[in-house]
Structures are given as structure tokens and as C-alpha cells.
Automatic annotation (TrEMBL):
Organism: Streptomyces brasiliensis
XdhC- CoxI domain sequence ranges: 13-77
InterPro entries found in the cross-reference section: MoCofactor_Util/Proc, XdhC_CoxI, XdhC_Rossmann_dom
Domain XdhC Rossmann: 120-231
Name of the protein described by the UniProt record: Carbon monoxide dehydrogenase F protein
Pfam family, one: XdhC_C
Length: 293
């Protein structure tokens, strides 16, 4: 990546900020972008870098946000209206962009998502084995204090203190709204602890105890494996990771029919108490001229 884009990407990765890396892999004259041009697309639709003019950028923005919200890597083919369509290829998406002045583009969109963050409470053999296995899967783990709040965007909290700070850790995870909370305890001890906390039905349902899937585990590593399997199941059931901001609204350009992402810089017009958004200023001006005429 160009230095500025690569430096920004590294910074975002360190801060656990999701983004999409967009790279032009093929360009046909007279497109303004060239192979190797790159950009970062943020969760709010903001773009850093260059992958084409306003019309191409709008198509990239909308497709990138779809990729970020569970769509996965995507090869985007942006064609001017009337251009022959590329042969269909698995994993490719074709967008016919009426406002392009000419030239086709192929842009690879790769979502860059931080690995799920799992906080582990306790230093028991099960806790140690869990951290080691989670590292193999590429998950990020953090050791937290029982009475400390989980870090922002924590995907799961595993309470494995074996009686040391378990109640405080469960309360903190519940208050923070952590999506997956697991308590390492026998069924009897787990139930007694939840009674002790005075939890209502909804809060009790959010705590998985005994932690882990029932795979007949006996040793600490086997129990850790069963807990990690349950975490994977929970993480994969959610298409959009918790770090990803809500997807911006979309609208259909009333002139060319393109789907555009609504943002601060999206060309916009209010007419007869209705709001309209456009792929570019050309479509907006044509629509405005029709209203006057």
C-alpha cells in the first residue's frame, strides 16, 4: 500500500477499528484511477485514498459497506452504462454506473476486522488452557480483574476464577452488555451463584453455565476446548462484529437508479417536502432542472 494508506491501516489495526481496504487491480482508459491505487473505507462510509472519481467512489463506498457488514471480500467491477458486462465470476459483483465518463474498473475490497476480543477472569488451569487455545485461533485475549469493567467491544467474558471474584466479574460483564458470558462452574455451584446475585430471568439467560459445549471434557485443556467451541459458535452467529458501526442509510438516485450511500458529502436535494440523494452532482442538477422545467 502507499505509505500514507499503509500507515493508516496499521494504526487502525492497532486501535481495533474495522475498515475495508480497496485496491484497484485493473483499469481501462479513460478511467481516472490506475492499477495499484488504494483507499481505506471506514464504517461510516468515509474514504481515505483514491480509487476513482466521484461516480466510481460512490459505487465503491456502497459495496465496501456491504462487505464490512458480513459480505466478505469482494471483487467489484464498475462499468459505464452500455459497456459489455464481464463474464460472471464467483465472488465478483458488477455495478453499471451511468455517470461514469468511460473506462471500466476492477477493485478488490477486503474487509479488515479486528479479531474477537475475549476477556478471561482467573488464573486457573482452565483459564490458562483457554488463552493458549484462543491464541491458536487468532482470537485476541485479555486478562481482566474481577471487579473491573470489560474493555470496549469485548465479544466474550470467560469467568474461570473458581470462586475468586466470580460474582463481581459476572456483574461487570452483565452491566457492560457483553454478548457472551460464560461461567466455569458445576451446574449446582453456577445456579447457586446466580441465585446469590439475585438475577432476573433475562440476566440469568445471558450467562452460560456450566461453560462450554457438552463434549465429555474431563481435563483442563478439554474443558477449555469446549468453552472455546461455544465462543466460536456465538461469534459466528453474529454476521456483523460489535466493533462495526451501524451501516449508513442508502437511497436510490431518482435519475439513474443507482443505489447510493447517504453521507455528509452525498449530493442531496429537497423538493416538495421530500428528500432525494444522488450519485453525483450531474444527476442532481438534471433532476433540479426537470423540476424547474
Amino acid at each position: 500500500m502507499p505509505k500514507t494508506v499503509s500507515a493508516r491501516a496499521l494504526e487502525l489495526a492497532e486501535r481495533r477499528v474495522p475498515f475495508v481496504h480497496a485496491r484497484v487491480v485493473r483499469a481501462q482508459a479513460p478511467a481516472s484511477a490506475h492499477p495499484g491505487d488504494e483507499a481505506i473505507v471506514y464504517g461510516d462510509g468515509t474514504i481515505d485514498g483514491f480509487v476513482g472519481g466521484m461516480c466510481a467512489e460512490g459505487s465503491v463506498r456502497t459495496a465496501a459497506l456491504g462487505a464490512l457488514h458480513g459480505g466478505g471480500p469482494l471483487l467489484l467491477r464498475v462499468l459505464p452504462q452500455g459497456e459489455a458486462v464481464f463474464p460472471e465470476t464467483p465472488g465478483a459483483q458488477v455495478v453499471v454506473n451511468p455517470c461514469l465518463s468511460g473506462g471500466a474498473l476492477e477493485i478488490f475490497l477486503e474487509p479488515v476486522l479486528p479479531p474477537p476480543l475475549i476477556e478471561v477472569v482467573g488464573h486457573t488451569p482452565i483459564a490458562e488452557a483457554f488463552v493458549a487455545l484462543a491464541d491458536v485461533l487468532g482470537y485476541a485475549t485479555a486478562r481482566s480483574l474481577p471487579d473491573g469493567p470489560p474493555a470496549e467491544h469485548t465479544g466474550a467474558v470467560i469467568v474461570a476464577g473458581q470462586g475468586r471474584g466470580d460474582a463481581e466479574a459476572l456483574r461487570a460483564a452483565l452491566d457492560a452488555g457483553v454478548p457472551h458470558i460464560a461461567l466455569v462452574a458445576s451446574r449446582r455451584r453456577g445456579s447457586a451463584l446466580l441465585d446469590e446475585l439475585g438475577l432476573g430471568e433475562q440476566e440469568r439467560a445471558r450467562i452460560h453455565t456450566p461453560a462450554g459445549l457438552d463434549i465429555g471434557a474431563r481435563t483442563a485443556p478439554e474443558v477449555a476446548l469446549s468453552i472455546l467451541a461455544e465462543v466460536v459458535e456465538a461469534v459466528r452467529s453474529t454476521r456483523t462484529p460489535p466493533q462495526v458501526a451501524d451501516r449508513p442509510a442508502e437511497a436510490v438516485d431518482p435519475v439513474c437508479g443507482m443505489t447510493v450511500t447517504v453521507g455528509r458529502d452525498t449530493p442531496h436535494l429537497t423538493a416538495e417536502d421530500e428528500e432525494f440523494w444522488f450519485c453525483g452532482t450531474g444527476c442532481r442538477d438534471r433532476y433540479a432542472a426537470g423540476l424547474v422545467g
